[in-house]
Every structure is written in structure tokens, then in C-alpha cells.
Amino acid sequence: MLGQIPDEVIEEVRKSNDIVDVIGEYVQLKKQGRNFFGLCPFHGEKTPSFSVTQDKQIFHCFGCGKGGNVVTFVMEIEGYNFFQAIQHLADKSGQTLPEEFQQRDENQHLSKENQDVLKAYEWLTKLYHHLLRHTKEGKEGYKYLKDRGFTDEVIDTFQLGFSPNSKDFIAQFLEKKGFHKQSMIKAGILTSNDQHNNSTDRFRGRVIFPIRNHLGKSIGFGGRTITNQEPKYLNSPETDLFQKGKLLYNFDLARSHIRKSSEAVLFEGYLDVISAHKAGIFNGIATLGTSITEAQAKLLRRYVDTVVICYDSDKAGIQASYKASKLLRSVGCNVKIASMPDGLDPDDFIRKFGDTRFKNEVILASDTYMTFMMKYIKKDYNLNLEGDRIQYVESVLDEIALIERPVEREHYLKELANEFELTVETLSQEIHSRREKIGLKQDKPKQSSHTNMTKGPYRTKKLLPAYHNAELQLIAYMLKDEAIAEKIKQELGGNFTIDQHKILVTYLYGYYEEGHEPNISHFIEKISDSDIQNLVIQIAMMPFNKDISDKEINDYIRIIQSEQSDKTKIKSLRVEQKMAEKQNDPFKAAQIGMQILEIQRQIKNSNP
Ligand SMILES: [Zn+2]
């Protein structure tokens, strides 16, 4: 089966992929002291407890406890096995793995049927694109896109294509390639025509918009009719490969731009994203004709602080913007809302007014959340009427009360006060009582730290017994310094009190024996047990003094040894006590009991 990839090769791949860069593609990381922090991609959270240590090349989440190195991160987040993760990282850093490890199917974690469907999508994406660009069969599609202002560069970037209006052209193509007809029908690539046992291309006669996943692979198509077929837009059906609620269109291409600007522009459909790209907006992404889901919002939150919502400016679009902004704010995003003159969508606007005006008058001029809200609420009231005015102010106050940042709240209160000639004090009182009613906290001085990193198991207030702490301290130094590990090996060997520590140091002794240098990220790869891996990471993340004196080391060793000798003593006393009871000598048994209690009392006193 799988041959082992040589250690040096793995090491080389790991060295060429800095953990901060790799994780940075999935999580927005901010430097804080020596570490980077971000929102954990493995569990939902609003305050960052996910930390990455560059010098140790490891990550650790103080919230859910996950941790590892760059390889385990890729395995975890992409659902890859070890080999796939190495392959993925090697590709990223432009390395070529030795011949015998190549050509393994990177999709082998998928079912055979899904692997086929992915391959079919890959072939068809190329074929449709080729037909559009270079053949007379694709000419009408090409002309349609050109008429709509699409440049060749855009057509190539998004691999736009055309499916000729032929009954069996695509079906035959797929058959020749050896794809199973039933799986193609199941995936929604072909539609079956039961009467004649024929199948036809579902997208025939349409311009094709390949829909890529975050790795840039086509997993579905959108087809736009150019001859007034119904429906105007046709998407691939939902399958386990193609789940609209989890997917963000163009995320693969936009990701690096999103990361740089810490901002994403959210559109309603792929056409808007492509038009915006043409206009120089490269951080655009879209849901696929459905409203944004919580999963998508959380995914975005990991990458950005701010999302600019740029939906159609008709009634439905504004309603959708309202919903999306609520959801995005609930996961912690800062939201802005772009708007266009009545009824237009982004693609209309760009075609009508051009790229520059779209950028300046729509994207850069987008409203803040509250400004949008005030407009949104206003549409239901006639502010010339006294009663409506009061109700309007009440509704706006309801919204302002929900804003987390006091500065922001004050800003809008002032605006509201000015507009309706009210005093800020009155309005502030209103806010105060509203917040109280819904159980939101009143303003307190801000906490200095905005991360959750104090949550870790070894950072809790609860003090550990002295021997436990001594073992953790020793291991921390042993991980960093081979000489210290050697000394401990001589004096304590594997005689640590906590079972997990015993296993850990056994791995560590073996690691050094193999001639490796201290290297956390490398070391954890040698450990098959993920609990022990996490323990190593946790210990490596503990704050500790740079240098340790021999005396300190000896103290720790002594604490551990005396704990153990106490334990052994108690054990043998218990045996003696049993014997005494058996021999019907209650006096002796009681005496021994006293001795045990005394040792236990001493242990208790020596531990905090
Ligand atoms: Zn976590």
C-alpha cells in the first residue's frame, strides 16, 4: 500500500510552508505579542482564542483544545489524510514530491462516484470554455458575452464557456471518456430522457459559468440562456458535492484580496461578481441565488472584519440586505451596505455608468449599518406626521440599543437628536432602559485583552498539585532543550506521575535518540495519539522563564520523586494494614491507618 514518504521530504515541505502563511489563508490572524490570534476555524466563536506561534510553527485553540503543526492543520481543515496534506503543501510551495508519491488521487477521500463527478466537471469546464473561445459552435455564446462587455481576460479568468444546442454532443463526449451515465444524471450534468433511454446535456444552449469550490475546482455550473429559454438561469442541483448553503462563489480567487483588505464585497450572484471583477473589485464573492446562511457568514467572519453587502436595489434586494446585515452582525462582522439608484443591480449599474463610478459611487460610498437601518425603518413611516415621527424614533432607538460599541451608539444618538430636536440625555436614558430590558450589559471600562487565551487548561485559576506542575515545567524545558531531557532521563526516566506525561516523555526520549533537534512541530508528527499531541502543544504554549537553573530542575525532580515515594509508601502501608486486619490485629491496623493519614496530611500541606 502507501509507501512512507521519507522524513527529509516531509521536513522540506514543512519548512517551505510557514504556518502563519498557510493558516492565514483560512483565518484572519492578528499579531499580539509573540503570537498570532484569530477566530478558531474548528469551533464557532466571536472572540479569538485560536493562536499560532511562528517560532514554534504550531497552532493551538484555547477554546476547543485543537492544536498541531502546519500539516495537521491542513489535514483537519480540508479533511485530507496525511499524504494529501503533504501533497497539497508541496504544490503550494512549488515542490515536486518524488515520483513514487505522485499521481495519487487528491480526491481519494471522496466516494468513487463523487470522484467521477469532479472529473467530469473538470473535463466539461475545459470543453465548454474551449468551445466558446475557439470554435464556431461556441460563437453565439462568445458574442453574447462580448456584447455584455466581458473581456477575453475575464472570460478566461472565470473559465466561462458555452454548451452547444445539441442533443447528445455532451452525453457522447462523457460516454467516450468512460463516465457512467447514471452518475452524470444523478449529479445533474445530464438529464434523462426516459422514452428513448437517451440523456441530454442539462445546460445545452446556455452560456456556462463554472462554480468553483474554495480550492478552485468546478463542482457545479450555472447556465444563462441566450435564447429566452426558461428558466433564465439554471444551476446544478444540490448534491453532497454541491451545497449552495456552504459555498461562496469566487472565494478561491477572492481569498487573497479579501485577506489583504480585510474586507469582502458580498453579491447576490456570480454575474455581479464577474462584472465587479471587471470593474476592479477583486474581493467580491456571492451566494448562489439564495440568502446567506449562518455557515457562510461564519466562514466570512474568519477572514474579514467588514463585509460590504451589494445586493440589487429593488424591494426584494433591500429586504435581503436587511436580513444579511443582521446575520453578519450576529457573527461579529462589521457591515456596510452599498446601494444603487432604484431597481438596478450591480451588473446593470456597471454597464450603464462604468467601472469607476461603480467603485466610487457604490462600493466606496456604501452606508454604515445604522445609516442603512435608519433609511430602512424610515420607509414605513410618514415623518410629516407627529405619531409616525415618534414611532420612527422608537424603532431607531431599538436598533441603536443593540449596538455593542458605546462610541458608535453615541454617534447615532447625536444624529437622531439633531434630526428631531431632542436632547441626547433623554435618548441615552431610553437606550439605557432598553438595554436593561433585553439583558445587555451596561457600559463598563473596556477590558484590556480581547482574546480568550486565558481559557486554556493550564491558565485557569485553579492551581495544580505541586508534582503535576513540576512535571509540566520539566516537560516544557525538555521539549526545548535536549540536554535537560537527557538529565531528566538519567534521573527520572519514565517515572512521571501522570500517565499522559509518562507516554509523552517516552516519545520524547525516542525522538532525541533518533538524532532529532528540539522542534515541536516536527516532534508532534512522531506521535500517533492525538491527545498526547495536543498535550505537547499545550505545554509548549505555556509561558515560562527563558533559563532554568540546575537547582530549579533538581527541585522539580525532588517534588516528583517524593510524590512517588509517598505514593509507594502509602501503597505498601495499605498492604500491611490489610494483613493486620486479616490477622485480627485491629490495634496494629489502626496504627497503620494513622501513619497513612499523616503522610496524606503532609502531601496536602506541601501542595497548594
Ligand atoms: Zn477552537
Automatic annotation (TrEMBL):
Q: What's the encoding gene here?
A: dnaG
Domain notes per entry:
Contains an N-terminal zinc-binding domain, a central core domain that contains the primase activity, and a C-terminal DnaB-binding domain.
**Known role:** RNA polymerase that catalyzes the synthesis of short RNA molecules used as primers for DNA polymerase during DNA replication.
Species for this entry: Aquibacillus halophilus
Q: Which segments constitute the Toprim domain?
A: 262-343
User: Which co-factors does it depend on?
Assistant: Zn(2+)
The record's listing under NCBIfam families reads: dnaG
What ranges of residues constitute the CHC2-type zinc fingers?
40-64
Q: Name one GO biological process term.
A: DNA replication, synthesis of primer
GO terms of molecular function: ATP binding; DNA binding; DNA helicase activity; DNA-directed RNA polymerase activity; zinc ion binding
SUPFAM superfamilies on file: DNA primase core, N-terminal domain of DnaB helicase, Zinc beta-ribbon
Name by which UniProt lists this protein: DNA primase
Per the similarity annotation, which family is this? Answer: Belongs to the DnaG primase family.
Kindly give the Pfam families that the UniProt entry links to this protein.
Answer: DnaB_bind, DNAG_N, Toprim_2, Zn_ribbon_DnaG
Keyword terms: DNA replication, DNA-binding, DNA-directed RNA polymerase, Magnesium, Metal-binding, Nucleotidyltransferase, Primosome, Transcription, Transferase, Zinc, Zinc-finger
Checking Gene3D superfamilies in the record gives:
3.40.1360.10, 6.10.140.360, DNA primase, catalytic core, N-terminal domain, DNAb Helicase, Chain A, Zinc finger, CHC2-type domain
